[in-house]
Amino acid sequence: MVLALPLLQLGSCTSNHDILSEAVIKDTPTEESGIIPILRITDFSILSTDNTGLKTDIIGVIDEEKKLIYVEIDSSNLSTLQLKPTIIVDTASTVIPDTNTPQDFTEEVTYTVTSETGEEENYTVIPTIVEPEIIESEIVETPCSSNRQDSGPIVVTENNQRIENLHIRTSNQHGIEINGFTGVVISNCIIEYTGAYVGIKFAMADNLTIENCSIKYTNAPSSGPLPDATRNCIEGFDTENLGITHVKVEDGSTGIRLDQCDESVLTYIEGHNMRGPFPKGQLVQYDKCIGGLLENFSVINDREIAWTEDNISIYKSAGQQIKKGLIVGNNSPKGVGVMFEDQNTEGARGGIGGLVEDVDFLEMGNGVASSVEGSGNVTFNRLRAKEIICGELGQNRGQPASNSLIFAGFETTGGNKITDCLVYESCNPTNIIWPEYSFEVLDYRDDIDFEPREPIVLNFDCSDLE
Predict the structure, then answer these.
(1) 3-state DSSP call for residue 17?
(2) CATH fold of 145-465
(3) How is domain 16-130 classified at the CATH fold level?
(4) What is the pLDDT of residues 22-32, one digit of tens each?
(5) pTM (2 decimals)?
(6) Which of 113, 119, 429, 445 is deepest in the core (most CB within 10 A)?
(7) pLDDT digit string (tens) for 217-271?
């Protein structure tokens, strides 16, 4: 038998743990049997699934004799002061404050357990603040600039060709061009390009690797769009098993544009000031692509410099997973942070579906995340958004067309989900989701501030070591 689950209430952030957080009644003898009910908290915990920003569950240690509950709170969670606990008692009792009330557990908190007949027992939560274990992060070394040789543009002429340790400058053709050759590796290069060209352009180049590279469109105007929308930092067509890692893209029409590039893997991508103009302006755009992973990325757009559309566009594509990212700045009246669209229209590939998970959004205007116009089965999980823009978006581009909507699902095929998301102090708090019926699950909260993820910072300038 298949059970139909009811739609969750807006803003309730309901989960299985919320159900457990109500006082659980065990089969305990009552006064009718001649035994006086025992007032006791049997379990106290603070669960990460119920508290956005909490990295791990906090399990309380109960001293029943002294009626004390000891909890250890990682100092890295101190920005998340208001935490909602899960409390279980062993009788038909109530707990005050109730378990749905967030508390500041950097200080002692007292809970009163009251039975149906009025007996009371107080428990005090005693916090201990502990420092987290410091884990060394992975450091990826890049060659110093003195190790790179000056170069003009490169045209690949054979399979498995390696292009490495170059500083390429070009104004009259693409920085690196690959047509029909496979297994090429581009490593440890700085590419500065201008004119109506692309930093790296490839087609039918299966098993291509681009690693440890900085790609910048030079001579961009001090603010606003480029002369046309063709000047992408990286542009690829009809290529499978593409890997792009530890790459910085700046001031291009779009950072990385992929057309019919299936199962690509993009990791540690740093982007700045995508310049458009329409229809470009993305950090990454998937066009008719099947699958693909974008993980550990950030794009920082100064709204008085950049000229954005959707920050990440999934167009006529399906199966993409967008994870662990930071998106700052969108000044397009119609663009959003992450957009899935047209998954079932003519020319689309891969069916429907996708995932956006653990991504933070700041300075969005027209929207944060959308599954629209024939897309469906998209899950938005653990997204966090704040500093939403109402009003002028920058550079006289006008105001958000959606009246500062957060999640959109119009003309969708259904199956979309919003799970464990956070919208903090939206400038238009009555305009969070539209239309609601397009989402099977609506699970978000709006009561806790958060510290955004750190942006990706890749260092290609080793002049201090020369």
Answers:
(1) helix
(2) Pectate Lyase C-like (2.160.20)
(3) Immunoglobulin-like (2.60.40)
(4) 333 334 444 44
(5) 0.72
(6) 113
(7) 999 999 999 999 999 999 999 999 999 999 999 999 999 999 999 999 999 999 9
